[in-house]
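Input.
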Amino acid sequence: MMIAGYCVGADTGVLYIRAEYPEAVDIVKQAVADIEAKGWIGRNIKGSGFNYRFKVIKAAGAYVCGEETALLNSIEGKRGEVRTRPPYPAQQGLFNRPTVVNNVETLACVPWVVEHGGAAFTRLGTEKSNGTKLVSLDSGFNRPGLYEVECGTPLSRVIDELGQGFRKRSRPCTSADRPVVSYQ
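Output.
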């Protein structure tokens, strides 16, 4: 996020974390305090003339706040509703200032792209869907965790190799298990 901020001339990054994840809020706040103590955020970072800070917001936002303009409204303390566009957030966003909105998954790719280049990133994945994707495997797997895979990775690899299969074997599906949908 800080690299993106530097590129667009921003001096503040807002981390919006839903209230349903109180542990994440505490962990991120501690990480921000740690990098601030080491001089990697604040005023005139390491003598560079670049100023940057993070603001961590524990938000009560609803599902709709995944949409960028609803997210901005929520951060401003307003109801999390989608804004009419134009203007777009890059023109008039948070508190009517130009704002770039990205999710954590997108921003997490930035250091790799800076190091290896955009062309190398587009070679990951498939022709129609390049790059990487984060996959979260829960406690139903033998090896739960958060994994980054190239787009187009077969689900069998995610389940069998990364997750090392399911903890419990499920019974085979029968026709009685299939839902019946009728349209009128």
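The first strand starts at residue 12 and ends at 18.
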